[in-house]
């Protein structure tokens, strides 16, 4: 078949017009009503964050930890190597390694501080995850996990500078004291971490640890709302974050 | 060609084994599982219908459930609007199993017949099993 340059360009031009057909059909065919919607009673926030006041934590108090573990079916292996951590205590010198100095009081060095996933603005765990099982929700800043996608490669454990992620080296089910049927357990070979009680926020409830704390040491709220309780605390107190020099922009603030 | 006998008998044995499933089950019909819809929860319902038409649920429940999973976990959307406009919480253990509370005679009977092994229950909790 002989084809002139003019003819060829005409065909190419017409084909390009054809590309516009599908979006037009799509717009006409779609009925516009969404199949999935957010639950209306959920708490709405643009940037969830937490302010921790460790000075209010009584010695040996584990209310928040126990509430979290009950809520999320966190297993108790009784072995620090296998420990699954969502919210836990760490000595001050390990929580704020840069703040330690030789003349610090020994008691303060060892003083337990509540730590949890920092839900970083620039989360290294998200960047290293090869399956996007860990992802950051852009609408409210929560660093979430999709356990369905986790392949257990543990890059995120290596990536997280706060040790906030734990691997299930064994089947966790037999090690859960009482299973909460409203939240799934995990399975062997899956990494897990604190989810800022994302499932409770969707029901309009505050995180379990915040509600469990009778000393009001934990405060949860929206950083983008200037009237929120967390913003009030950040205005009136001097706060520090864990290892801010790493550039992860952690969103758990500590009143010191 | 000293091994002719061995080779031929080897081929014969292989053919017999390879075709075993076909002639062994010839003439037999496997009984399809009868799904039990007889749970106290379903009996209580005034109108016995699932969230979508039965044919669709039978053929595509897995696609529906996977789309629920993506919507809930990744998009944070937790309510499903069915084709007839009713709204449902997208939850396997709290919604599906509320009516289909007899998992062995509903999910499992068909899945074991079809030889599929969904891994839902290695994490998701069957409400009855969690009850003390």
Strand coverage percent of chain B: under 5%
Overall geometry of chain A: elongated
Largest interface, with counts of residues having CB < 8 Å to the other chain, equals:
A-B, 29 and 26 residues
**Biggest sheet, spatial arrangement of strands of chain B:** 1-2
Number of helices of chain A: 10
Order of helices and strands of chain B: HHHEEHHH
Please summarize what this structure is.
The complex is a heterodimer of chains A (256) and B (132). The model of chain A has no long low-confidence stretch (mean pLDDT 92). Chain A has helices at residues 5-19, 21-29, 63-72, 92-95, 106-110, 124-128, 155-159, 198-201, 208-212, 229-236; strands at 36-37, 48-52, 87-91, 112-116, 134-136, 143-145, 166-167, 191-192, 218-222, 239-241, 252-255.
Describe this structure in words.
The complex is a heterodimer of chains A (256) and B (132). By secondary structure, chain A is α+β, with helices and mostly antiparallel strands. Chain A has a single domain, classed as 2-Layer Sandwich (Alpha-Beta Plaits). Chain A is built from 10 helices and 11 strands. A 4-stranded mixed beta sheet of chain A has the order 9-2-11-10, with helices on one face. The longest helix of chain A has 15 residues. The termini of chain A are far apart. The model of chain A has no long low-confidence stretch (mean pLDDT 92). With 132 residues, chain B is mainly alpha-helical. Chain B has one domain. Chain B has a two-stranded antiparallel sheet with strand order 1-2. In chain B, strand 1 and strand 2 form a beta hairpin. Classes of the chains: A alpha+beta (256), B mainly alpha (132). At the A-B interface, strand 1 of A face helix 3 and strand 1 of B. Strand 1 of chain A pairs antiparallel with strand 1 of chain B.
